[in-house]
Write a structure and sequence with these properties.
The chain is α/β, with parallel strands linked by helices. The protein has a single domain, classed as Aldolase class I (TIM Barrel, Alpha-Beta Barrel). The protein contains eleven helices and eight strands. The protein has an eight-stranded parallel beta barrel with strand order 1-2-3-4-5-6-7-8, surrounded by eight helices. Helix 3 links the parallel strand 2 and strand 3. The N terminus is likely disordered. The structure holds pyridoxine-5'-phosphate (PXP). The site of pyridoxine-5'-phosphate has 17 residues, from strand 8 and helix 10.
């Protein structure tokens, strides 16, 4: 099946603005201010991960983002009862389920869906009924992609962390093999009726081969952009990522 649409959305993850704030227990820098700048710079959405330990984004940050953002919020969270009730209270545009504990991960680092299918199907049902687009963060691993489709998720987000690490370590043959797995899983997920997103660890050097997959509709990028913002400012850092993405999507 051919991909329906070539537009590629950029979701900017602002978690690490909160990491810098929390390092000093100060009120600044404010993740909401970063999110609004990202909106102005062309972000199609904002992503924030409310971790169980609240190490970066806080509950108050989610309140502020929900109240103030014009673009959709993608709330990343673990599949816990506490997070489910927070998501049901806010009803963000999208909820992306991510692993936070070692035992919830597949080898490559995505959510272990295949071994937890029943629980996850029940977990996402009320979120779907509340109108949230449920996304599952998975490794480029066929059983995980197939399980995500079976439990009724609307979206899979393919984990690009292994591909980016292999690139950074100069292990190019292994990087290319991982890229091939990502390409195959993007095609499979699309054929199974899932919308395909990707993210984790993407940089200016690694984004284009992923952005070139025609099935991918959204990239979620944070850590590199927040770091790059130190040198060129957040707006220009985002604009350059957007340019690189658009260059390969024509
Ligand atoms: N997508 C998901 C599901 C994530 O958990 C993260 C990290 O929070 C990202 C994308 C963004 O990764 P990075 O900050 O490395 O760009």
């Amino acid at each position: 099946m051919a991909a329906a649409q070539t537009t590629l959305r950029l979701g900017v993850n602002i978690d690490h603005v909160a990491t810098v704030r929390n390092a000093r227990g100060s009120a600044y820098p404010d993740p909401l201010r970063a999110a609004k700048l990202a909106e102005e710079a062309g972000a199609d959405g904002i992503t924030a991960h409310l971790r169980e330990d609240r190490r970066h984004i806080s509950d108050a940050d989610i309140d502020a983002l929900m109240a103030e953002l014009r673009v959709p919020l993608n709330l990343e969270m673990a599949a816990t009862a506490e997070m489910q009730s927070i998501a049901l209270r806010h009803k963000p545009h999208a909820v992306c389920l991510v692993p936070e504990k070692r035992e919830e991960r597949t080898t490559e680092g995505g959510l272990e869906v295949a071994k937890d299918e029943n629980r996850l199907a029940h977990f996402i049902a009320p979120l779907r009924e509340a109108g949230c687009r449920v996304s599952i963060f998975v490794a480029a691993d066929q059983p995980q992609v197939e399980a995500a489709a079976r439990i009724g998720a609307a979206v899979v987000e393919l984990h690009t962390g292994a591909y980016c690490d292999l690139h950074a370590e100069g292990r190019f043959a292994e990087r290319d093999a991982e890229l091939e797995r990502l390409r195959d899983m993007a095609a499979l997920a699309h054929d199974l009726g899932l919308e395909v997103h990707a993210g984790h660890g993407l940089t200016y050097d690694t984004v284009q081969p992923i952005a070139a997959f025609p099935q991918i509709m959204e990239l979620n990028i944070g850590h590199f952009l927040i770091g790059e913002a130190i040198f060129r400012g957040l707006g220009p850092a985002i604009a350059e990522m957007r340019r690189l993405m658009d260059e390969v999507r024509g």
